[in-house]
Amino acid sequence: MIRRARPLLGTLVEIGVTDINLPMLVANQAINQAFARIACVQQSMSFHSPESELTRLNRHPGQWVVLSPLTIRVLRLAKAVGIASDNRFNCTVGGALVAQGGLPNPVSHEVHSIGESAFIHLMPSKAMLAEPVLVTLDGIAKGFAIDVAVASLKAKGITSGWVNAGGDLRVFGNASLSVTIRGNRKGEPVIVSNQAIASSQIAPTHTESFPAWLVDGSEQATITSAYQRQQSNGVVTVSARYAWRADALTKIAALAPNDDALMQRLKGKLLHCA
Amino acid sequence: MRNSLMFFPMAAIVCPAYAVDYLSIEQAQQVIFGETVSSIATPLALDDDQRDLIKDLAGVRQRQDTQPIWKIEQNGQQVGWLFMDDVIGKHEYITYALGVNMAGEVVGMEILSYRETHGGEVREAEWRGNFAGKTVDQPFKLDEDIPNISGATLSCRNLTDGVKRLLVIQQQFLAASTS
């Protein structure tokens, strides 16, 4: 077994390869490439970077912007899960996050604080924002990067292993990992195999150590979520087939923690919510 | 804003648990510089004045009296340096290897080992950044250079500081010796 880690995606990303009898060199080259793919996702989809593909899109509403296949794909997934969840997952909330000081403003034009997933128009190699909104992929891109890394490992002949980005995790092939879900006081480990798992912590108050925000962009946003009613901290953990989906669904589960039907329709499973 | 919650993506999964050894320094050398290079241990002893200089230039204290460094050679010609370093945060202790080429650019970084010193509340964050191609002349403040708007983990901040410090060492004490 080979395990390696590098600082990426704002955390330590660990890649494990459990193939037996695989030459070290082959495994290491596969891991190198997977890390490079993660770095590529990170660069393309950065909200902060003035050179990222995402920033190019945000800067030119009303125009078709040519984008790489990776960025088109993550936009397609973000839009699809946005529409399927009635915008409970909504990647067009960048304007609101900028207004709240959660993100730096990457553009000079006026933007809507919150838009709709349907504002994102897609063609095979280009995208257009129908309205001046700011797309942020923070709620999905990390999971997506994990999936891209897994696909890259598989393409290089790796049949089993995992990619763990600070707790957002996907295990593939024959590998299985025993993980403890944080916030779950009973502490029963969960065996993860052939699936992805993602967790998010929700808190009612802003802290300096992590001033990120969750914005409810849906029509039902006036319904106060369970977390706000309780005014307490919570950890949401979701499993799904793919890491992008688990990542996105933690946000939906946080905003609609009791909507099992929605979670089922979106092909995720709420493992823990407290 | 009708409805907003603070949102913390976090490492809710404890895996790795408390301690993981990833690579040996030899393995890291191969991963960063390839299989065909050779290395010569050239640890660098630093006196108080030199450590003060590093602190002034890097903004981070040089804890070690001796910095483990290897000269990396290919076909008898030096191609770079490999540093081994550790950073200590509130909750974690990370040993890593950094490869730097003759132009003073980062060519690779690998975590060698990771320890959580207590409890393991290592919070992940939306810290974006890429050390590749980074040189000491470029600004290296987390907030400006590696945007850190949504907050940073201790791990990543400490690693950023560590890389900055090693690049100062490279520029001040190593680059001149090979010219």
Would you write up a description of this structure?
The complex is a heterodimer of chains A (274) and B (179). By secondary structure, chain A is of the alpha+beta class. Helix content of chain A is 32%, strand content 26%. Chain A contains eight helices and eleven strands. In chain A, β1 (2-8) and β2 form a beta hairpin. Chain A is globular and about 55 Å long. The model of chain A is unreliable at 205-213 and 217-232 (pLDDT under 50). With 179 residues, chain B is an alpha+beta fold. Chain B has helices spanning 25-33, 48-58, 142-145, 154-174, and strands at residues 4-9, 19-21, 38-41, 44-45, 66-67, 69-74, 77-88, 92-101, 106-116. In chain B, the strands form two sheets. Chain B has a six-stranded antiparallel sheet. In chain B, strands 4-5 form a two-stranded antiparallel ribbon. In chain B, α2 packs across α4 (154-174). The longest helix of chain B has 21 residues, at 154-174. Classes of the chains: A alpha+beta (274), B alpha+beta (179). β8 of chain A pairs antiparallel with β1 (4-9) of chain B, so a sheet runs across the interface.
Lateral strand order in the biggest sheet of chain A: 1-2-6-7-8-10-11
Strand % of chain A is 25-35%
Oligomer: heterodimer
Helix proportion of chain A: 25-40%
Q: Largest protein interface?
A: A-B, 72 and 48 residues
**Rg of chain A, please?**
19 Å
- Helix share bin of chain B: 25-40%
Biggest sheet features of chain B: 6 strands, antiparallel
The CATH superfamily of the largest domain in chain A appears as ApbE-like domains
How many structural domains does the protein architecture of chain A include? Answer: 2
Strand content of chain B: 25-35%
CATH architecture of the largest domain in chain A: Roll
Order of SSEs of chain B, N→C? EEHEEHEEEEEHH
- Could you report the average pLDDT of chain B, rounded to the nearest whole number? 73
The total strand number of chain A stands at: 11
The low-confidence runs of chain B, each spanning 5 or more residues with pLDDT under 50, are 1-17, 118-154
Based on CA inertia axes, which overall geometry of chain B fits?
Answer: globular
Main sheet characteristics of chain A: 7 strands, antiparallel
